[in-house]
């Protein structure tokens, strides 16, 4: 089976589906409220014409070409067309500002770009002075671009027309190019988020990506009958594996939403059977549910809380295939009819057979919530450098505190310090033009250093504690020497719908303190129900009533941490509510919404000092970047809130 996997490329997989299932749906796109379908045979023809057009434009084997936009069938086809020629697509984040594109484009010496629409065209035009080699830009959506006359700018339609004419006179060109490509050729390059400097280009071959796609598909019995919704950034390797590599490996249908604002509606219309999302998406869905329950009548609200208490008690055991007993089974069946099934339908997850979350750790309470209502949510472990799939959770063995077992082809070992090392057929070939960084993570004997701290439990499941560099120790006080795992604490805080983001501090300190971002929608809805007026985010965040609401949330987390002897020292003793939302445009989050803890600690040093200095409030001014590109300052006098911490709960022997 291993040899079979390694004997193909993405374009060959696409042509195989087109030959065996020409009329079957490959891609769907919602346009003006109507789902449009592209069959495998139509996709193959589109890829052929795009490839011929790109070849005529001068794209050669080994060249890089950037692709920027939402999930769109013609952008997927463009990536396949580039790969058909032996060129290397480099997807970049569509919500990045122009300055963030400069390093990847120059580092990869990119001369060609395919972008979605006017917004992305404007970015390419803006950075041309810094990227002089970027000579040609093609756009998919022509709206707003009719009067643009910039050199090297043209539509994908014109590229397709050019390729169509070329194909008519060079009938064997495309097929020869596809057959020339080899499994060990570079298939794509994904840039890391660059939390500590310039991003690194992670180089993957066809064989590494296809191998992991096949391993993941085999593990969960994924077939051509699945329905998948592609709504996450294509530049994120997780989206690329699930909706591109696995799509071409398995031949299922990928559905592209009309736009970001319609994803929730599109999710319900499609009813995906195979679903993938980072924790922040599951957090957002749960927040929506809780807001709706705030608006519900007294009887409906009472039923919801009654059956959710039941689900929390018996739901996870039911999902793991355990017997519930007659009374609980009947009780749960009633709950499923009254609450759980309608709730799954509201979330758009009623048909989901397998759902995965990855990208960062998910809070155990959030994870348990989804499994308790009958959604087969599981965790996986991997990274850009491992082509995602390292560990997956088997059905009936999905635990909130682990990320699964090593899957086919994967070996795991731990260093003396607890760092996880991985050996897998899916490991990166290299970091592009960065041999020093490659040598840091890839040992001579083929082990990849993940930078994560964890261990394998008695059942062979991997448990992640935190990023190895982030795991710290409490110094001094009652819990001197206790472990401090900031991400674990932050995830428990974010389980509450009122908390959108949290940043915990405590390494080499006597106690743990935290910054909190409120969820504007959830807290705003809560405030309106109580006739609490507010004049925007900063005003709402500093309301005394909101501070009390959040104090209750933090103290519930502290009570839970007190029951964990390893992490009892991580209880939050003080917190403040930030006056602005943490933002990727301000350099505080990555494009995948991971906290840049070092940047935040440095930027808000005055607030960190106030938390640990015993102050009751602190004035702060912060530079911000607005959506229209303008910059400005926001300021506030932030109140610092003390919270109750609990004695460690001694578990019975």
Folded structure, characterized:
This protein has 653 residues and is an alpha/beta fold. Among the domains are: 2-277, ANL, N-terminal domain (Rossmann fold, 3-Layer(aba) Sandwich); 472-642, 2-Layer Sandwich (GMP Synthetase, Chain A, domain 3), CATH 3.30.300.30. It has 22 helices and 28 strands. It has a five-stranded parallel β-sheet, sandwiched between helices. A five-stranded mixed β-sheet has the order 12-13-14-15-16, sandwiched between helices. A five-stranded mixed β-sheet has the order 24-25-26-28-27, with helices on both faces. Strand 13 (354-357), helix 15 (364-372) and strand 14 (377-381) form a beta-alpha-beta unit. Helix 2 packs antiparallel against helix 3. The longest helix has 22 residues, at 298-319. The chain starts with a helix and ends in an 11-residue tail after the last strand. Mean pLDDT is 91; it is low at 1-6.
Summarize the structure.
This protein is of the alpha/beta class and 653 residues long. It contains 22 helices and 28 strands.
Question: How many strands appear in the DSSP assignment?
Answer: 28
Known CATH architecture of the domain at 2-277:
3-Layer(aba) Sandwich
Structural category is alpha/beta
Query: How large, in whole angstroms, is the Cα Rg?
Result: 25 Å
Strand order of the largest sheet: 4-3-5-6-7
Q: What's the rounded overall pLDDT mean?
A: 91
Query: What is the rounded distance between the termini?
Result: 48 Å
The CATH topology of the domain at 2-277 turns out to be: Rossmann fold
- Helix content estimate: 25-40%
Query: By CATH's scheme, which homologous superfamily of the domain at 2-277 applies?
Result: ANL, N-terminal domain
Major sheet size, sense and barrel closure: 5 strands, parallel
Uncertain parts: 1-6
CATH class categorisation of the domain at 2-277: Alpha Beta
Strand content: 15-25%
Overall shape: globular
The tally of helices reads: 22
């Amino acid at each position: 089976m291993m040899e079979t996997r390694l004997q193909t490329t993405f374009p060959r997989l696409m042509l195989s589906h087109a030959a065996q299932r020409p009329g079957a749906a490959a891609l769907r796109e919602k346009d003006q409220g109507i789902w449009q379908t592209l069959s495998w045979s139509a996709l193959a023809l589109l890829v052929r014409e795009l490839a011929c057009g790109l070849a005529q434009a001068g794209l050669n084997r080994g060249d890089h070409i950037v692709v920027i936009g939402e999930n769109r069938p013609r952008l997927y086809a463009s990536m396949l067309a580039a790969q058909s020629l032996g060129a290397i697509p480099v997807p970049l984040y569509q919500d990045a500002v122009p300055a963030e594109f400069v390093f990847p484009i120059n580092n990869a010496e990119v001369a060609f770009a395919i972008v979605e629409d006017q917004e992305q065209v404007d970015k390419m035009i803006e950075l041309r002075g810094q990227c002089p080699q970027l000579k040609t830009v093609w756009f998919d959506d022509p709206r707003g671009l009719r009067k643009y006359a910039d050199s090297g700018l043209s539509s994908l339609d014109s590229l397709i027309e050019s390729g169509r004419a070329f194909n008519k006179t060079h009938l064997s060109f495309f097929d020869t190019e596809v057959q020339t490509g080899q499994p060990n050729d570079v298939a794509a390059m994904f840039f890391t988020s660059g939390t500590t400097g310039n991003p690194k280009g992670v180089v993957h071959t066809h064989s590494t990506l296809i191998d992991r796609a096949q391993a993941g598909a085999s593990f969960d019995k994924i077939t051509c009958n699945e329905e998948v919704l592609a709504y996450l950034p294509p530049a994120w390797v997780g989206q690329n594996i699930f909706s591109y590599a696995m799509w071409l490996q398995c031949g299922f249908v990928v559905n592209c939403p009309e736009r970001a604002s319609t994803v929730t509606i599109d999710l319900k219309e499609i009813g995906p059977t195979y679903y993938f999302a980072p924790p922040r998406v599951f957090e957002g869905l749960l927040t929506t549910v809780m807001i709706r329950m705030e608006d519900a009548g007294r009887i409906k609200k009472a039923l919801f809380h009654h059956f959710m208490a039941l689900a929390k008690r018996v739901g996870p055991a039911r999902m793991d295939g355990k017997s519930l007993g007659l009374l609980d089974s009947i009780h749960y069946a009633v709950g499923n009819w009254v609450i759980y099934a309608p709730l799954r339908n509201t979330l758009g997850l009623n048909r989901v057979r397998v759902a995965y979350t990855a990208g960062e750790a998910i809070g155990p309470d959030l994870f348990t919530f989804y499994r308790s209502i009958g959604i087969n949510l599981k965790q996986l472990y991997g990274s850009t450098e491992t082509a995602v799939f390292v560990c997956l959770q088997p059905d009936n063995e999905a635990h909130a505190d682990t990320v699964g077992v090593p899957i086919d082809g994967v070996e795991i070992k731990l260093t003396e310090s607890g760092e996880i090392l991985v050996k897998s057929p899916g490991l990166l070939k290299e970091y592009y033009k960065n041999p020093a960084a490659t040598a840091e993570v890839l040992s001579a004997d083929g082990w990849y250093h993940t930078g994560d701290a964890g261990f394998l439990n008695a059942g062979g499941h991997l448990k992640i504690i935190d990023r190895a560099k982030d795991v710290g120790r409490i110094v001094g006080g009652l819990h001197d020497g206790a472990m401090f795992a900031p991400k674990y604490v932050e995830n428990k805080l974010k389980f509450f719908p009122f908390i959108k983001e949290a940043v915990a501090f405590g390494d080499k300190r006597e106690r743990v303190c935290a910054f909190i971002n409120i969820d504007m929608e959830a807290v705003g809805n809560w405030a309106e129900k109580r006739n609490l007026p507010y004049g925007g985010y900063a005003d709402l965040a500093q309301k005394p009533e909101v501070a009390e609401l959040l104090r209750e949330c933090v103290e519930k987390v502290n009570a839970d941490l007190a029951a964990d002897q390893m992490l009892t020292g991580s209880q939050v003793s003080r917190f403040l509510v930030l006056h602005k939302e943490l933002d990727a445009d301000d350099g505080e989050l990555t494009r995948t919404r991971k906290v840049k803890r070092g940047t935040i600690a440095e930027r808000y040093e005055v607030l960190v000092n106030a938390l640990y200095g015993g102050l009751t409030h602190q004035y702060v001014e912060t530079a911000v970047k607005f959506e229209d590109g303008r910059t400005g300052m926001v300021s506030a006098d932030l109140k610092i809130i003390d919270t109750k911490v609990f004695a460690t709960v001694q578990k019975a022997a």
